[in-house]
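Annex B. Sample input.
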Amino acid sequence: MTAPARQPDRPPGDVDELAAGIRAGDRAKLARAITLVESRREDHRAAARALLEELLAETGRSHRIGITGVPGVGKSTFLEGLGTRLTAEGHKVAVLAVDPSSRRTGGSILGDKTRMAALAADANAFIRPSPAAGTLGGVARASRETILLCEAAGYDVVFVETVGVGQSEMVVSEMVDMFLLLMLPGAGDELQGIKKGILEIADLLVVNKADGTSLPLARQAVRDLSGALRILQPEPGAWQPKVMTVSSLERKGLDEVWGTVLEHRRALEEAGEFARLRARQQVRWMWAQIEDRLFQLLREHPAVAEALPSYEADVEAGKRPPTVAAEELIELFLGRRPGATH
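Annex B, continued. Sample output.
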């Protein structure tokens, strides 16, 4: 008797079933849908595209807020305090952690739900770490799609958290409406190792841990940061970045932070900037998708995959310039003989 042909692995959940579950606010279905959009398998990618197209009309209605800060600044305590305050008011809050991953161990450096135990247990909250591996472009792709899925599930406030030590901040700033930079008291001239470029994209700077003996330092940090912003962001616009203090531990200042988020949204909408911001993000998203997909196709191309180990060894040994290696690998991808005249 002939054995039945092996059926290809099905994606984690039928698209129609997942869409219905997401519309109903089913967190388990939402988690399965996010796993689907994170996958790089061809059948999963096709299912993810179908799912996103099905849900597109239910997206775009949330406040998208990026948040960053150096490790130890208190992002988890801040997010839990603000998040539980918002859910108590009837909001549905999603927290997404964008993590480029530890290249050495491959493990996640963010996204541990134990950091926000109360918020994780809240029926109106959803916490999700980003993929634990892959290029930053791939992480950004999955994060953008995850935002849409959360919006379709009814989450009207979406926080996108990043570790605060690298390029991921710039990527996150291009997928949110407002970018919030969390700072420590006594920022100092070195700005705690945060690059000045991050200050340039911040819409709101919040000095955390403004309590106890740190309160005078926090107030001084507000003065210092306000002066730095006047230098780094001189161009007038619909919104001028603000600096304020908060004590996440004592739950002080959180009302003012949320009020500023709403004020920022109103200012952009009244100036016609909000719609333009979202439209520009859509175009950048398209190009990010193209770049991520082309990179994946390049790495998976048989001729490139076969030649890559020797090329990497030559570059590492200094036998071949990186620029030449890159060009020749692209030639292989295009089906041409490396170094041939066209």
